[in-house]
Write a structure and sequence with these properties.
The chain is an alpha+beta fold. 60% of the residues lie in helices and 11% in strands. The strands form three sheets. It has a seven-stranded mixed β-sheet. Helix 12 packs antiparallel against helix 14. The longest helix is centred in the C-terminal third of the chain and has 82 residues.
Length: 554
């Protein structure tokens, strides 16, 4: 509800600014025309919450496409353990409704008290029928000291008999002008608007502006008949010094009388009446603004999301398992189907909670557990919280999410399997990096063989027994080749071990890829089910509101 009121106040503020600019641009000075324009703004501002529901104009807005993984519903298991959790911070958001209602109630009571007191005064007043009253509804009372308009009746103090003819005429003309324009009802509407939208600066400004314009229009009505401006100014100052009524349209209040007197004495001519052409231009300017501000709504238009990518995760980087906290406590299953576009709700069953919305709503949804024993549905609509305890409605709601819960369980199992495969892949990688083959130390033997071969080659060049030396050289080279072959054989054993581990790593990668494809398919199905369940849930909650099954949270 507060969200609706805040948006209504903002739209009304925009409307007020646009009308103010239009009046300045068209140079409208006549108080009656200005008052009529602001009366229209006030009426629209009071009706704005209802006008917004009609959504007269929808403007499609294209926004960039996002990957399916950004809005595919994910089932997360979260535990709530009161004994281990830190104290929750003070929730100012939950207190705002109480603050709003308190201030609105005080302002409403103040306005109502003024009407009641003035109404009692009106009942005690005596009807006055004199020649100067000219058939108008006039009453006289000893409880007031200044003339005041209440409804369509003019109340005057009993000392009227001592007034001069000019004073009686000025009072009657001034108050009759208020009655003819129904200023009492307009100012009462401004007071109601201020009580409802007390947080908006427009509500306070427009109430003062309408009061000022109504007095200026009535002053002009008097001056049009009585040309003596100083005398009329003295009459106003005399009434401003006296005690003012609790409600009604008083003839002269101290807060505004100085400005009125200054205006009366400084101007030499009355403000010209607004011509028909200017009034039509003003209407043509304001009417579209009202229609746009009151009925404007933006509708995001997203392209169809692409299918989730089925590319397998890289080996050694398995898809993370579903978030899980294994502390023993109550469990909440969250179906996050782009909850920012829908109003939050929660299905509370014993220690479990199926909810759609931000994490901050968990505390609000749980508050009813102390007063409601059994299952219930908690949800918000236009900023106001409701609850449902009807078992048939709750059973229908649980059916909407049954298939999604099963898919969530399967996704959790796949995630756990992917995690175990990832651990095996990491272990194989570690084994591959640690593969070593013990190598015998043939270095000294090879050095001796090489040295003997070099010596024989020298002797072969200097000796005549070349055949004997050639035989010895061939023998040494054969022994050297044998040692090198042994080393090559040992090294090949290490390569075979690396190849075996690599083959196992490839097998795990293939299994990981298949699990990733299955996980992607489940995610796509999860998204489809979430959208269907969300639509069904909204219809169910709307039916519960219309039938009275849904009760407001006090």
């Amino acid at each position: 509800m507060l969200r609706l009121l805040f948006e209504s106040a903002l739209r009304s503020l925009i409307l007020g600014g646009a009308v103010w600019i239009a009046l300045k641009a068209l140079r409208v000075r006549n108080p009656r025309t200005q008052s009529a324009a602001w009366a229209a703004v006030l009426t629209i501002a009071v009706l704005m919450p209802w006008l917004m529901r009609w959504s007269a104009i929808s403007v499609p807005v294209d926004i960039p496409a996002v990957r399916a993984s950004q809005f595919t519903p994910v089932v997360r298991i979260i535990t709530l353990n009161a004994s281990q959790s830190s104290p929750a911070p003070f929730d100012w958001g939950s207190k705002l409704p109480y603050v709003y209602v308190t201030i609105a109630a005080l302002l409403s009571l103040r306005m109502a008290a003024g009407f009641v007191l003035t109404g009692l005064l009106w009942r005690r007043a005596t009807p006055l029928v004199e020649l100067w009253t000219a058939g108008n509804k006039v009453r006289t009372s000893a409880d007031i000291t200044v003339p005041v308009t209440f409804g369509s009746t003019i109340l005057v103090p009993q000392e009227w008999s001592g007034w001069t003819v000019e004073k009686r005429t000025a009072v009657l003309l001034h108050e009759k002008s208020h009655v003819d324009r129904r200023d009492f009802y307009l100012q009462a509407l401004a007071g109601l608007h201020r009580a409802i939208f007390w947080f908006s600066p427009l509500s306070w400004w427009i109430a003062r502006r309408i009061a000022v314009l109504s007095e200026a229009a009535s002053d002009d009505a008097v001056i049009a008949q009585i040309a003596d401006r100083p005398t009329y100014a003295e009459i106003l100052l005399d009434f401003a010094r006296k005690r003012q009524p609790a409600a009604g349209v008083a003839m002269a209040r101290p807060a505004s009388v100085s400005q009125r007197v200054e205006r009366i004495l400084s101007e030499t001519t009355l403000a010209a009446k607004t011509g028909l052409a200017k009034r039509l231009v003003l209407f043509a300017t304001i009417a579209p603004i009202i229609a746009l501000v009151a009925g404007f709504s933006m509708r995001a238009q997203n392209p169809a999301p692409p299918h989730p990518s089925s590319a397998p995760p890289q080996a050694g980087n398995p898809a993370p398992p579903q978030e899980k906290n294994t502390r023993h406590a109550s469990t909440s299953q969250i179906f996050d189907s782009d909850a920012s576009k829908t109003e939050p709700f929660a299905i509370v069953t014993g220690d479990s909670m199926t909810m759609n919305g931000p994490m901050s709503m968990i505390g609000r949804a749980q508050k009813l557990r102390g007063t409601i024993h059994g299952k219930y549905i908690w949800f918000e609509r236009n900023g106001k919280a409701y609850f449902i305890t009807d078992s048939a409605t709750i059973d229908r709601a649980e059916e909407f999410f049954a298939a999604q819960q099963e898919l969530g369980r399967r996704q959790g199992e796949l995630g756990e399997l992917q995690g175990r495969l990832g651990e095996q892949q990491a272990e194989l990688g570690q084994q591959q990096s640690n593969v070593t083959v013990p190598m015998p130390d043939y270095s000294r033997e090879m050095e001796k063989l090489k040295e003997a071969i070099v010596n024989l080659q020298k002797e072969f060049k200097d000796s005549a027994g070349r055949d004997a030396h050639q035989s010895d050289l061939s023998d040494l080279q054969a022994r050297l080749a044998e040692v090198q072959a042994k080393l090559a054989n040992i090294q090949s054993q290490g390569g075979e071990r690396q190849a075996q581990l690599g083959a196992l790593q490839a097998q795990l990668g293939q299994r990981q890829s298949k699990l990733g494809e299955e996980q992607a398919k489940l995610g796509e199905e999860q998204g489809r089910l979430a959208r269907e369940a969300s639509v069904k849930m909204r219809k169910l909650l709307e039916e519960a509101l219309q039938s009275g099954i849904a009760k407001p949270v006090e």
